[in-house]
Amino acid sequence: MPYRLPPLSSLRAFEAAARHLSFKNAAQELSVTPTAISHQIKTLEDYLNQELFVRLTRSLELTPQGEAMLPKVREGLECFAAAVESAAAHPAQGRLIVMVPPSFATRWLVPRLRSFALAAPNLRLQVIRDLSAIDGFPPERGGPFESVDLREEDSMVVIRFGHGDYPGYQVERMFGSDYIAVCSPKLLQGEHALRTPQDMRQQVLLYDDTASEWAGPSWDEWFRLAGVEPPENLAVQAGPHFSDSGMVYVAALDGLGVALASKPLVATALSQGRLVAPFDISVAQTFAYYLVTPKATANRTAVLAFRQWLLQQAMAEEPHST
Question: Which one of 101, 111, 139, 285 counts the least CB within 10 Å of its CB?
Answer without folding.
Answer: 111
